[in-house]
Amino acid sequence: MERRNLTDPFERYGLTRVVNASARETAWGAAPVSPEVIAAAAATLPHSVDLGELHRAASALIAEVTGAEAGFVTGCCAGGITLSVAACMTGPNLARVEQLPDTTGMRNEVVLQKGHECNFGARVSQMIRLSGARVVEVGTATDCARFQLEGAITPQTAAGVFVLSHHTVQVGLLDLSAFAEVCHARGVPVILDAAGEYDWPGFLRAGADLVIWSAHKAMGGLTAGVIAGREELIRACCFNERGIGRPMKAGKEGIVGAMAALERWVRLDHAHEAAEVRRKVELARSKLEGTKGLTLEVRPDTSGQPIVRLAVHVEPGAAGLTAFDLGQALAKGEPKINIYALHAERGYLLMSVVNLDDEGVDFVCRRIRGIVEAAKGSAARVHPPARHDLVLKGLHAFPGRPPKARTGRKAAE
Q1: Is residue 407 part of a domain?
Q2: Does any domain span residue 196?
Q3: Residue 155: cis peptide before it, omega within 30 degrees of 0
Q4: How far is Cα 354 from Cα 306, in angstroms, rounded to an integer?
Q5: Percent of the chain at pLDDT exceeding 90
């Protein structure tokens, strides 16, 4: 009879182990949680806590770390977008908070550059509309000028939302400073969605009134969203937890986890961290050099983070498979390797090393070489399926059941 270690959730529930060579996406469990954060959350979980007092302590710490006037912790960054938009519409007015998502009598329009309407797992515009606001897209997908933003702002404009992400269009749009300058000239606050980014003081200096990011990505914390910014708007965020923000609230472990992650963040040697990422990327390049059909390129982060990634260009005629095929093959192995495949239709994958140690880098590179070396003949260039069609296929397969899962009474025996 097969015996399993039922204290290990991967064994107990039949979960597939994942080697993350992509990024800190939520879909892959975000970043590994640091030991300091685990210890802080574990020390809090057995106890009752005054959540109001905890939120005030978190606000003071967020302000200290970022230079903001105040801060707030919510369930996640996506929830933070909805909460922040609601705050800009209601202010600290509990009657208006209870009225949402009905925005009658409130300024309820939110301007968003069309090139920032991206899907990070859900659409940015939907996170805005959850508050009851109406999204006003500005410009075209690849072009937005100051006059277009100026023309889109009306007496009904409650806020402007700016998205800083590799998912957005990277050329032709207004940068944060220009976007904020136009909005502020018309008395419109700016909300910055910076989920995986981390120059929070710089974003505030550039003109963001509220900056939102994920505690569970760059910070290495538990799942939560952190909001930093102007005191009156942060207060309004707190008010909105008595309304539509209620389903987005963070528990004591999320708040304490975010605080511990922030304290850890300020102690990190960020120059050393960036140098380690570059070293591991160069290590990966050295291990993949000479593989048939692969061309390697070290690329800086498109959002401005001080990190680099390895672009693995795949020539189908020489490699015997496409970039999409390579990404799919990596995902079907045991353990599963996740690699950033957003640009597979352009013929390359992006390998991130932020979640990998040297052994992990070696493992991923050996798997890539093995897959390519096993490919036969030449592959035709084909347009891969849209990634959200692949997501849809997975949704239709839900709930399914992990093949090795042992749950319920049998697992407890």
Answers
A1: no
A2: yes
A3: no
A4: 12
A5: 70
Q: Give the 3-state secondary structure of residue 307.
A: coil
> Residue 359's pLDDT is what?
96
Residue-wise pLDDT tens digits, 97-123: 999 999 999 999 999 999 999 888 889
If we measure between CA atoms, which residue out of 30, 7, 6, 5 comes closest to residue 18?
A: 30
Q: What is the total count of domains within the chain?
A: 2
Q: Higher pLDDT residue, 1 or 164?
A: 164
How far apart (Å, rounded) are the C-alpha atoms in residues 238 and 92? Answer: 8
Judgement on whether residues 170 and 288 belong to the same structural domain of the protein: no
Q: What is d(CA 92, CA 97) in angstroms, rounded to the nearest whole number?
A: 8
CA-to-CA distance for 94 and 97, rounded, in angstroms?
5
| Strand ranges of the sheet holding 190-193, from the earlier edge strand across to the other edge | 70-74, 225-229, 210-214, 190-193, 157-163, 109-113, 134-138
Centre a 10 Å sphere on the Cβ of residue 37 and count the other Cβ atoms it contains.
26
The model's pTM is 0.90
Site of tokens 């007496």: 155
Same domain, 327 and 257: no
> What letter would DSSP give residue 383?
P
Residue-level pLDDT at 254: 95
Domain boundary among 267, 297, 313: 267
Please list the residues that pair with 99 across neighbouring strands. none
CA distances from 284 to 271, 275, 353, 366 (A): 20, 14, 9, 10
CA 179 – CA 194 distance, rounded (Å):
15
Give the structural domain span for 379: 270-396
38 vs 277: CA distance, rounded Å: 24
